[in-house]
Amino acid sequence: MQTNRIILGDCCRVMPTLPPACADFILTDPPYLVNYKDREGRSIKNDIEADWLMPAFREAYRVLKPDSLCVSFYGWTKTDLFYAAWKAAGFRIVGHITFPKRYASASRLMRYSHENAYLLAKGSPRPPEHPIGDVIDWNYSGNRHHPTEKPLSVLTPLIESFCPRGGLVLDPFAGSASTLVAARSVGRQYLGIELDPTYHGAAVRRLNGYSAGQAAYLDRERATSASVCYMERAA
Ligand SMILES: C[S@@+](CC[C@H](N)C(=O)[O-])C[C@H]1O[C@@H](n2cnc3c(N)ncnc32)[C@H](O)[C@@H]1O
């Protein structure tokens, strides 16, 4: 199986082509089922209907190694649907992680200023030598590559804690490849799947070392026939 790449496609169709028990850790951020749209009008595919939820987590369970872990972000307004899908797939709920933000994502009846994820087990994973806390401070990612881009700083401790060095991290809802960039930065292999060609393109550019901003800059430079000598790598 070819790793260290992001596949363009529907994870419910792509995961069945992967061998069983190939991933050491799954870290994923599926659509929250909230019909999200940001100020620039960017939206997320499959963010209304939940028909993909059960098949996706059934396959995630199959491709995860025995006695291994999955961390899944989720939308708290649809906790019941996510919970049902995880349990139906065979996962045990073994932890809940809260990510407090220093800003509110929305303000209605309350100022909504945290994200959530569940820690899900297949079998009985061995506890890490130095367990991390279940409250992890959130840093704003800037959402440059994707409207709901997760900050690398919250992903890397999860990968270091739950995936062995050199192991394979799978993200079936990879967006702009934040999980994959984080995995690479801490010496893990990675495999991502992304349905939307726009975000897949952003992910490929990011993995190839260019931020979306730099790619747009290069596109503009090319369009004006300026000589392009700017090949600075993304930080
Ligand atoms: C919440 S976003 C992930 C953002 C990502 N964590 C990042 O930092 O860029 C969820 C992503 O899942 C993708 N998606 C939705 N349904 C999918 C499916 N069936 N297979 C693969 N990707 C899917 C969406 O296009 C979206 O980019």
Automatic annotation (TrEMBL):
Sorted alphabetically, the Gene Ontology BP terms of this entry are: methylation
Sorted alphabetically, the keyword list is:
Methyltransferase, Transferase
Q: Does the keyword Transmembrane helix apply?
A: no
Query: Among its keywords, does the record have Cell cycle?
Result: no
Q: What is its EC number?
A: 2.1.1.-
Coiled coil feature spans: none
InterPro entries named among the record's database cross-references:
DNA_methylase_N4/N6, DNA_methylase_N6_adenine_CS, RM_Methyltransferase, SAM-dependent_MTases_sf
Q: Which residues form the DNA methylase N-4/N-6 domain?
A: 24-203
Instruction: Please name the GO terms that the record assigns under molecular function.
Output: methyltransferase activity
Q: Which Gene3D superfamilies match?
A: Vaccinia Virus protein VP39
One of its Pfam families is N6_N4_Mtase
Matching entries from PANTHER family are given as: RNA METHYLASE-RELATED, TRNA (GUANINE(10)-N2)-METHYLTRANSFERASE HOMOLOG
Please state which protein family the record places this protein in: Belongs to the N(4)/N(6)-methyltransferase family.
- Entry protein name: Methyltransferase
